[in-house]
Amino acid sequence: MSTVTVRAPGKVNLQLSVGPLRDDGFHHLVTVFQAVSLFDDVTVTRSDRLRVRTFGESEVPADENNLAGKAAVLLAERIGVEPLVDIRINKRIPVAGGMAGGSADAAAALVACASLWEAELDLFPLAAQLGSDVSFSLLGGMALGEKRGEVLTPLPARGTQHWVFAFADTLLSTPMVYKEFDRIRGTDVPDPTRSEDLLRALEGGDPVEVGQALTNEMEPAALALAPRLRATLAAGRSAGALGSIVAGTGPTCAFLARDEANANELVVALEVSGTCRAARYAYGPVAGPITR
Ligand code: C5P
To answer: Model's pTM, two decimal places?
Structure first.
């Protein structure tokens, strides 16, 4: 076998609660992750050198900072081979959008390279080393995330959530949004706790209750850095979304719909509103990386 393609989903945080800044520069989180049906496809092919190229949704730097390339290098070091692969990433998850697109690519690259190199090992420790969200990208489904976000407890899925994602025409850097969070919140930040309201709503499966229970404590920081997102959130709300939040650290905005038909109405309303670059329907939860 000389080529493997792995498809990995993006994610949305249904709860994102942020605690104090830790000594290691990260924040203690309590979050509910859900993998959604916006997918990146990562194809790895044996080659005479490491190369990363991206296609689709938008450009990602295909340099040594590309997380899929880093994943290949880390796995190669761990199992003692040379990282001689050509990596092609077909992107549908928005870049620097708060939906863990880079983490999805890293998780997919780990799975694809492990298959190519016939390496049988637990990939989760490598995922946690690559980034806070990569562990969830490897797991998929729905999970409670704690510590940096890498300590995961799977949550049972009762039914499907129907989402609309509004892609912004700006990017937000994750560290900058966290820095803005620290500036706004100061040092007196309580430890985060899980939202029982959300967990109850998810168990009941009523989309109205889930919509009302969505929370994101990073939202004020994202809105301070990208004030135009207020208009996007307002457009989705006035079009009848059951819940509206900034996705992760943004700038993508997430809207919960009643069902797929309602989601398609929201897509049209958001695109017509002119407050976003594009709007896309997706559902969740979906499985983690799948070899195609
Ligand atoms: O882990 P990852 O590389 O994705 O994190 C990017 C940046 O986001 C970190 O350098 C840090 O500034 C911020 N971050 C944080 N607390 C977390 C996760 C990320 O402060 N739990």
So the answer is: 0.97
